[in-house]
Design a protein that fits this description.
Largest sheet: 5 strands, antiparallel
Structural class: mainly beta
Bound molecules: zinc ion
Strand content: 35-45%
Radius of gyration: 12 Å
Oligomer: single chain
Number of helices: 0
Number of domains: 1
Order of helices and strands: EEEEE
C-alpha cells in the first residue's frame, strides 16, 4: 500500500549521519515529507535488521514503514 521512501530520489535533501551497512540514518535537511503522516520528518533510520533500538526522547513522535526487505523508522522531534 505504502510507496515507501526512496532515499536516492531525495538524497540531496538528506544528510547521511550513519551508515552501518545494514542500517543507515539520514537527517532531513529539506523538508522531505514522511510517507506515513505527510509531515516533514527529523530523522529517518533505514534498517534491514530484524530488530533495532531507538533512543528517541519521550516527546518524539515515530512513524514506521515496514517493507518486505527493510524497515524505515521516521522521527518527528
Ligand atoms: Zn510521520
Amino acid at each position: 500500500m505504502s510507496e515507501g521512501l526512496d532515499f536516492e530520489a531525495v538524497r540531496h535533501r538528506l544528510k547521511l549521519v550513519r551508515d552501518a551497512g545494514d542500517e543507515r540514518i539520514f537527517e532531513n535537511r529539506g523538508d522531505v515529507a514522511c510517507p506515513v503522516c505527510g509531515d516533514a520528518f527529523t530523522e529517518a533510520m533505514e534498517t534491514t535488521r530484524r530488530t533495532c533500538q531507538l533512543s528517541a526522547g519521550p516527546s518524539v513522535d515515530v512513524c514506521i514503514v515496514r517493507e518486505s526487505n527493510r524497515t524505515v523508522v521516521l522521527t518527528h522531534a
